Amino acid sequence: MAARRFTAEELQAARDRVVPDVVADGLTVLFCGINPGLMSAATGHHFARPGNRFWPVLHLSGFTPRRLAPSEQHELLSYGLGITNVVARATARADELTDDEFREGGRLLTAKVERLRPRWLAVVGVTAYRVAFGDRKAVTGPQERTIGDTRIWVLPNPSGLNAHWTAQTMAEEYARLRVAALDGPSS
Q1: Residue ranges per domain, the chain?
Q2: Which of 58, 59, 126, 152 could form a disulfide with 143 if both were Cys (CB 3.0 to 4.6 A apart)?
Q3: pLDDT class for 3, splitting at 50, 70, 90?
Q4: DSSP labels for 76-139?
Q5: Catalytic residue among 35, 52, 85, 157
Q6: Global confidence as pTM
Q7: CA dihedral of residues 136, 123, 20, 12 (deg, nearest 10)
Q8: Which residues face 146 on adjacent strands?
Q9: Which of 45, 46, 52, 157 is an active site residue?
Q10: Does CATH number 3.40.470.10 belong to domain 14-183?
Q11: pLDDT more than 90, % of the chain
């Protein structure tokens, strides 16, 4: 089934909307996007823009047995996975967000993680992580910081705009988290 095409007006009307989290208590990994794009806000599905590589990378890395469509996002819960965002409001581009929004998002995200207690929080975007958590030197991979017992892993942003990472190199990094989260001791 082909994805519905939205007009420019429909996408702009989705600006500032919030896409509901896909969460549950005690998840293995809570993936955390930067903020919803306009396509995600228009559809109500995380990582919905056709060029976004989140869903293919999730499958390539072994987190899901097949490539899920954004409309199947609630199936993630059956795999112990969930999705939230650092900043809830939708924008056309992440660079429309302010540092204050990121810092407030980090505070709210910390409270959410304390409440839900996932084993791992996976922030998809090192720059968003750096600003939200005040850690300017953070790099991709596992972090020293924890939120309670929740470990943190910073993953590459799957946006098609992130040309530094291919789907394959992203899948390799996501797979490192999968192994740590599902198969072995914390790394």
Answers
A1: 14-183
A2: 152
A3: low
A4: GGGGTEEEEESS-B--SSGGGS-HHHHHHHHHHHHHHHHHH--SEEEEE-HHHHHHHHT-TT--
A5: 35
A6: 0.93
A7: 60
A8: 151
A9: 46
A10: yes
A11: 78
